[in-house]
């Protein structure tokens, strides 16, 4: 009896030990999950959009060069909405990088008179700096031609923009892109035509497709202006659609186009390009878009 009882106790001890061993494996090893009380939280994924990039390159046309913002018929890059150092403008670069950082890590490759067809070349220059953010504002000169028939076709506008983004993405896969909409040229005509000086300057050949014969209100003049305006809207649709296909691209949602600017935001030398005040408003729009939570 004692032998049988001893043997039973041994068998029971082995069974208990085995059970505890199995339980131990379930708690800390094998394929079973750890108890919820000790699980480590999963790390948050790195966001695709960095709201505080450390460098910036700007591409585009005369607006980004600050043309006619400071002096007649001359670029004024210090007043640029994108990269300028002017305290009156408080550019996007200054807002994002600080004044010293903007001076060291922002670059302006925009060219007065540039059209969308020129953007690939500007992108090729910009990527050499390896910026974390590239700003794009171009398209007004594609609509501002001698006549509406000379405007850049929408298909060409799209192809050149797509080519530009492909080149950028190939060189800098993680670079971010801010795309500004083309300004409302018909509103520019409506606001600027109240100035006799502005209309006189426009006669020198500034955006004749929209601003030519500024006082004409006949059906032919209205058709011409509406045709140009429709083309601007088509350009903005292209910018929105192409940008939407790139997860690291942000379009301003037509904010520049929709902004209800007045003569205070227009250059007093040509009533076409943004004044210093107008450049500051563009900087505000850009900063708001770049730093916003994902739209």
Question: Can you tell me about this structure?
Answer:
The chain has 295 residues and is an alpha/beta fold. The chain has a single domain (56-291), classed as 3-Layer(aba) Sandwich (Rossmann fold). 47% of the residues lie in helices and 7% in strands. It contains twelve helices and five strands. Strands 2-1-3-4-5 form a five-stranded parallel beta sheet, with helices on both faces. The longest helix is centred in the first third of the chain and has 27 residues, at 2-28. One of its GO terms (molecular function) is phospholipase activity.
**Which structural class do the helices and strands define?**
alpha/beta
What is the helix/strand order?
Answer: HEHHEHEHHEHHHHEHH
Overall 3D form: globular
- In the CATH hierarchy, what is the architecture at level 2? 3-Layer(aba) Sandwich
Region (Disordered): 30-52
GO molecular function, one term: phospholipase activity
Organism: Streptomyces azureus
InterPro entries: GDSL, PLB1, SGNH_hydro_sf
């Amino acid at each position: 009896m004692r032998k049988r009882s001893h043997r039973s106790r041994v068998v029971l001890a082995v069974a208990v030990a085995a059970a505890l061993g199995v339980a131990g494996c379930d708690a800390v090893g094998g394929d079973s999950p750890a108890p919820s009380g000790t699980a480590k939280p999963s790390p948050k994924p790195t966001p695709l959009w960095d709201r505080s990039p450390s460098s910036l390159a700007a591409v585009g046309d005369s607006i980004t060069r600050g043309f006619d913002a400071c002096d007649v018929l001359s670029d004024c890059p210090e007043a640029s909405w994108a990269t300028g150092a002017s305290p009156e403008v408080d550019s996007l670069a200054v807002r994002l990088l600080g004044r010293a950082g903007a001076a060291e890590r922002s670059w302006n490759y925009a060219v007065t008179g540039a059209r969308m067809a020129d953007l690939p070349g500007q992108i090729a220059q910009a990527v050499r700096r390896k910026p974390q953010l590239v700003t794009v504002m171009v398209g007004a000169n594609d609509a501002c031609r001698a006549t509406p028939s000379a405007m850049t076709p929408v298909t060409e506008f799209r192809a050149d923009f797509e080519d530009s983004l492909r080149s950028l993405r190939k060189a800098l896969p993680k670079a971010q892109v801010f795309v500004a909409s083309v300004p409302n040229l018909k509103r520019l005509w409506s606001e600027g035509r109240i100035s006799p000086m502005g209309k006189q300057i426009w006669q020198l050949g500034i955006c004749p497709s929209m601003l030519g014969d500024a006082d004409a209100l006949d059906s032919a003049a209205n058709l011409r202006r509406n045709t140009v305006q429709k083309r601007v809207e088509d350009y903005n649709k292209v910018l929105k659609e192409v940008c939407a296909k790139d997860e690291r691209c942000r379009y301003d949602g037509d904010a520049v186009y929709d902004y209800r600017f007045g003569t205070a935001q227009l250059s007093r030398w040509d009533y076409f390009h943004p004044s210093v005040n107008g450049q500051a408003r563009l900087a505000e729009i850009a900063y708001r878009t770049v730093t916003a939570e994902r739209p």
